[in-house]
UniProtKB/TrEMBL annotation:
Keywords: ATP-binding, Hydrolase, Membrane, Nucleotide-binding, Transmembrane, Transmembrane helix, Transport. This is Alpha/beta fold hydrolase. Residues 7-235 form the ABC transporter domain. It comes from the Bacteria. It comes from Micromonospora zhanjiangensis.
Length: 236
């Protein structure tokens, strides 16, 4: 089951060591071609959910399937997930491309599996990949970070707050980047605390509050019709 589905999350629960339940119960799917926005206010449990999906922390309960394979510690399906947790540091004296090459080398995977050109093209960095990253704007660094998460062209791209700190033109560019990526059976999952950003960049939304889903579906339905997304999803 789910062999063609990039991500299935069932009954996810995460209780931290101090007893705090950050994720009470979360169920959702990400299908090929979708750009799904995990939307909710600060503290809703978005980062915790994404960290579980990236294999960085273990869930207390629940099941996760990536193309039908259970996601468990050390699972080979982890290599099918490309992740961006927070803006990675880039070496300022190296170009964007050199930074990505050095990152990929450290993964130990074969260079021909990286697909540098395709990742950079999807990320829309153009000729600036040859410039030193110390000359990059915040938006360019963000796109380079996303290009890095795209290396190897993972079938599921998971990005935590990729539009954070970007201005409207950069958000519009981000939408094009994510839509370009979510083709050829691939899909994207992004988190955001801003309804407008999810509306602009995603095809679908999963709205979470206090560790539970309060609405989910295509963005146009969520934005237009769901009274449950009237909670505070504005900037803090
Ligand atoms: P943000 O946008 O602020 O990152 P979020 O929706 O991503 O919000 P999480 O980061 O998942 O939310 O945090 C959910 C809750 O879990 C928060 O109240 C946070 O304080 C708590 N939390 C996070 N990490 C831990 C931890 N290691 N131990 C205990 N509680 C934690």
């Amino acid at each position: 089951a789910y062999a063609d589905v990039p991500l299935v999350v069932k009954g996810l629960r995460k209780e931290y060591a101090d007893g705090f339940v950050a994720v009470k119960r979360v169920d959702f799917e990400v299908r090929p071609g979708q750009v799904v926005g995990l939307l909710g206010p600060n503290g809703a449990g978005k980062t915790t959910t994404l960290r579980v999906l990236m294999g960085l922390t273990q869930p207390t309960a629940g099941e996760i399937y990536v193309f039908g394979h259970p996601l468990v510690p050390g699972s080979p399906v982890l290599s099918r997930i490309g992740a961006l947790v927070e803006g990675p540091g880039f070496l300022p004296h190296l170009s964007g491309l050199e930074n990505l090459r050095s990152y990929w080398r450290a993964t130990g995977r074969p260079v021909e599996d990286a697909h540098f050109e395709e990742a950079l093209e999807i990320a829309g960095l153009g000729d600036s990949v040859h410039r030193k990253t110390r000359k990059y704007s915040h938006g360019m660094k963000q796109r380079l970070a996303i290009a890095q998460a795209m290396l190897g062209l993972p079938q599921l791209l998971v990005l935590d707050e990729p539009t954070d700190g970007l201005d409207p033109p950069q958000i519009a560019e981000m939408r094009r980047v994510l839509k370009r990526y979510a083709t050829d059976g691939r899909a994207v999952l992004v988190s955001s605390h801003l309804l407008a950003e999810v509306e602009q960049t995603c095809t679908h939304a999963v709205v979470v509050n206090k560790g539970e889903i309060v609405a989910s579906g295509p963005v146009d339905e969520i934005v237009g019709e769901s009274p449950s997304v009237q909670f505070d999803v504005t900037d803090p």
